[in-house]
Amino acid sequence: EAKQPGNRRYQFYIASIGAKSQEAFELEIQMRQALERQEFQLYYQPKVNLLTGQIEGAEALVRWNHPQRGIISPVEFIPLAEKTGLIVPLGEWVLRQACHQARVWQDQGIYPLRIAVNLSPRQFNQSNLTNFVVDILHETGLNPHYLELELTESTLVQNPESAIATLQTFKALGIRISIDDFGTGYSALSQLKKFPFDVLKIDRSFVCQLTEDSRDEAITTAILQMARSLKLKVVAEGVETLSQLNFLKGHQCDEIQGYWFSPPLSAEAFADLLSTGKKFPLLSS
Ligand code: C2E
Ligand code: MG
Ligand code: MG
Ligand code: MG
């Protein structure tokens, strides 16, 4: 009798692990088919220049339009894609689609727009990455100056020597490099400084408490000051409120991205936004 509750707990534990991996397994099989069935879709979130009020660029964010489950967030499937290696063909599709879309918008006479694409660690460590990016730029006809690649600190520090070489190649081509989710990694600034990059994206976790938590204000102010002296641009992600926006504007942040201006949009909705010429209201600072 005494043993039973523990036993049950144990069985429950096994069952829940089993259910979890079963679900992951099914998702993996479906993900393999999803590429062929064209179930992935890119959404675009504007990046707005805080001085001019103009949309300067867009971050391409992948969604999975699952036939039964509806739209699935990348938070749910990117880690699995990374683990299984499916991120390589998926990332290839994302890069091609994003560059193609940017070129189409340019051809339609919409002002030149910079497109940002996220690269996962596994993609970044592909030995043929730089050739592959060059091929896609040729294929889609996108000028490399309009491509931006977003990488996290942890991706870079895995293999610093080859990361530096890869970034130098990208930089020589005119591609812009951003450090995504800045401040959440464990890398020391002394280590980060050897990587040639152009932009720091302040992680949403600091931005969301701005004007509420003085520690986040201090961290954000410090990142902005440091970036200015290192001649880096700063983008704040996850800006949702006017007070966050005013704080960032007051501290000379270059660009913002967040629900306050616009959530990620389908290509059609994004083109509509561009054609209305929606400008960020230039607030008196
Ligand atoms: P990320 O690159 O840091 O992208 C920013 C995320 O913040 C996006 O989530 C975006 O929708 C969300 N966001 C933007 N503004 C706001 C805001 O004001 N409030 C809140 N609460 N959220 C905001 P999303 O689209 O779910 O993407 C999550 C992550 O998945 C991305 O984080 C990126 O790491 C990864 N991801 C998305 N697309 C791709 C892709 O094509 N390739 C790779 N390797 N990773 C991707
Ligand atoms: Mg990103
Ligand atoms: Mg980010
Ligand atoms: Mg993030």
From TrEMBL:
GO terms for biological process: phosphorelay signal transduction system. One of its GO terms (molecular function) is cyclic-guanylate-specific phosphodiesterase activity. Keywords: Phosphoprotein. Residues 24-278 form the EAL domain. This is Cyclic diguanylate phosphodiesterase (EAL) domain protein. It comes from Coleofasciculus chthonoplastes PCC 7420.
